[in-house]
């Protein structure tokens, strides 16, 4: 029997505010997916990027070492999950230290502990956390679904290539509305 979880990844204020061209309907659409998962009794797992003050975890990372002091720490308001999709008490929030939701986090332990074997992926950016997580999750033998319009990227062409040509090799790719229809 398949046990699924909806992953909402990197949908943090500092990220949603920085993705140019992110439609104003993105977070409300993602909120519909979150609501549908909850209604179906499916766990919603939030994945966020987060660092300690002083960013000791980023010193060896070319990608993250350039972050401004204080970015994505507990005191950074931009590190908060977007209020449209905010977690409810008791929902898991997993903090990662690199691009993939699995790297530097306890995500696999959280999922395996709940007997989850199917992940529904959403998040920002398609070419970042979604791609990296999809690849690692496939190697960890999770069944995968990507909600294409539950993801977004600064480059719409890259988003399109990934969701239409790359992701279908390892995941089912659908839309939020089609996925919600299949849940009911």
From TrEMBL:
One of its GO terms (molecular function) is hydrolase activity. InterPro entries: Isochorismatase-like_dom, Isochorismatase-like_hydrls, Isochorismatase-like_sf. Residues 4-177 form the Isochorismatase-like domain. Pfam families: Isochorismatase. Transmembrane segments: none annotated. Keywords: Hydrolase. It comes from the Bacteria. This is Hydrolase. It comes from Streptomyces aurantiacus.
